[in-house]
Amino acid sequence: MEIVIISGLSGAGKSKAASFLEDMGFYIVDNMPAAMILKFAEFCAGGNGRYDRVALVYDVRTSDSFSELFDVLDKLRSMGGVCRMLFLQASPETVIKRYKETRRRHPLSSGTDTLEEAVRREIEVMRPVKERADFVIDTSSLSTAQLRGELLRMFSGKDEKAGMTVAVASFGFKYGLPLEADLVLDVRFMPNPFYIETLREKTGLDQAVSDYVFSFQQTQDFLTKLEDLLTLTLPLYAEEGKTSLTVAVGCTGGQHRSVAIAHALTGFIQQKGYPVTEYHRDMPRG
């Protein structure tokens, strides 16, 4: 069982971090008191694997004393599971700017005269928690995508590439564009196997159709340039924090050319190390 306790300064990005960990398969619980963490861990341990990865958000609102949290951390680590604490911080100037943009109240504002005073007070209050943390991330100059990348490296052992799933879909233009498409490729310029009687009833997944489609130099040139484009853009999409990308390849009916090209693209993307799925939306219509 793996438990991550997310703590840190208000406005430093704990909610975003929790969302990214949730995308990575963690079960998220916000604002859980330290007294309940052990009981919750015992509950998760008996969940038949359903709660093997849990992330708990713990901040200054949860307790006036952190000694109970530290006791819980020690007990969890002695239980044999993996328990780590992530602390998020940001400069006072950054936190103040974020609060002014969101117009939310700082949790310590009721006992202070200014927002700056509340922020600096929280920095001092949370210092013991920061010192016990396994990981500390300063989000002052991090983009959302960069924060996601840091979390992927820390808690999945993978880079941004593994955090983005690519779906390659074939479709027929006469049935409309796939609504989920991010990139749309039109391959109707290629010679159409539909007009070859022996190929008409087959699909682009049949070797005879694929051989026909790729027997033309224009098809090979197109695929080479497309592979160059994806080699350039896929890492950029991943670095920018995109979690899913759909590449849609269309021909007239979605039976032959688009299917063959989509199938070839899937193999190429897989070789590049990205999780990839393949589906042929309109092939069953044939």
Task: Describe what you observe in this structure.
The chain is an alpha/beta fold and 286 residues long. It folds into 2 domains: 2-158, 3-Layer(aba) Sandwich (Rossmann fold); 162-285, no CATH class. The chain contains 10 helices and 9 strands. The protein has helices spanning 14-23, 34-45, 67-78, 92-102, 115-125, 127-132, 144-155, 207-213, 217-239, 257-271; strands at residues 2-8, 27-30, 53-57, 82-89, 135-138, 165-172, 183-186, 244-251, 276-280.
Per DSSP, what share of the residues sits in E-state strands of 2 or more residues? Answer: 15-25%
Any idea what the CATH superfamily of the largest domain is called? P-loop containing nucleotide triphosphate hydrolases
- Shape category: elongated
- The chain-level structural class is alpha/beta
What does the radius of gyration come to?
A: 26 Å
| The CATH C-level class name of the largest domain | Alpha Beta
Widest sheet, order of strands:
2-3-1-4-5
Order of helices and strands: EHEHEHEHHHEHEEHHEHE
Number of contiguous helices = 10
How is the biggest beta sheet arranged? 5 strands, parallel
The span between the termini is 48 Å
- At the fold tier of CATH, the topology name of the largest domain is Rossmann fold
